[in-house]
Amino acid sequence: MSGHILLAYGVDGKGGGEALTGDAISKQIRDDKLAWVHMDANHPDTREWFTKEAQGLDPLVVDALLAEETRVLE
Questions:
Q1: Domain extents for the chain?
Q2: What is the residue-averaged pLDDT of the chain?
Q3: How far apart are CA 12 and CA 33, in angstroms?
Q4: Closest Cα partner for 37 from 55, 14, 54?
Q5: Sign (positive/negative) of CA torsion 55, 49, 61, 30?
Q6: pTM score > 0.85 for this model?
Q7: pLDDT one-digit tens code per residue, 16-35
């Protein structure tokens, strides 16, 4: 898994899911299936990944997801 993706799961909508890695993450998203992807917002490749793989997300949403004030930092 790339350094900017920490964990990823495909969610089945019935309370279950499966861990995703590599190309399976992108496939899950492209197939319009629900996925949870935990990313390192500080990694330089994260914004590029959103732009390439999550094309349905509005750029304002991507900005909000990566904004420091919207994340819990310790």
A1: 5-70
A2: 87
A3: 8
A4: 54
A5: positive
A6: no
A7: 999 999 999 989 988 888 99
